[in-house]
Amino acid sequence: MIEMNYPVFGECQCGKIKFSLKAAPKMVIACHCKECQKLSTSAFSITAIVQQDDIDIEGELHETSRIADSGNTNIGKFCSGCGNRIYQLNPAEPTVIKFKAISSLSDTKMVVPTTHVWTSEKQSWVTIPEGVQQFEKQR
């Protein structure tokens, strides 16, 4: 377990959106699906699963929506200034926040993926550390 002092503060790239994480994430996931590769403009995206009560977000967020392969609705909240994705949620589970801006916090020691999903779509050069849980698709 990583020792952290909460809350931890952060902001989007342009500073219009500010956030504080008040407790440790329930889980940190690296997603290798093609949608997350587009979203992150990288090989994968990092998501921290947090409870709604464990995060405070200030600033005006804009919203996108799409239907995931699972059939669930995925709402994305982002900054209108810089476009940084701040979080996502499934309206059927509004208390579970998929915090995308985890790497923008002032202290990122907790940003260590414990699970990798959609490894069936990962870039061939990405090596997942031994012993880390992984799934070929979303579980």
Automatic annotation (TrEMBL):
InterPro entries: CENP-V/GFA (IPR006913), Mss4-like_sf (IPR011057). GO terms for molecular function: carbon-sulfur lyase activity; metal ion binding. Keywords: Lyase, Metal-binding, Zinc. It comes from the Bacteria. Pfam families: GFA (PF04828). Residues 8-136 form the CENP-V/GFA domain. PANTHER family: CENP-V_GFA DOMAIN-CONTAINING PROTEIN-RELATED, GFA DOMAIN-CONTAINING PROTEIN. Belongs to the Gfa family. This is GFA family protein.
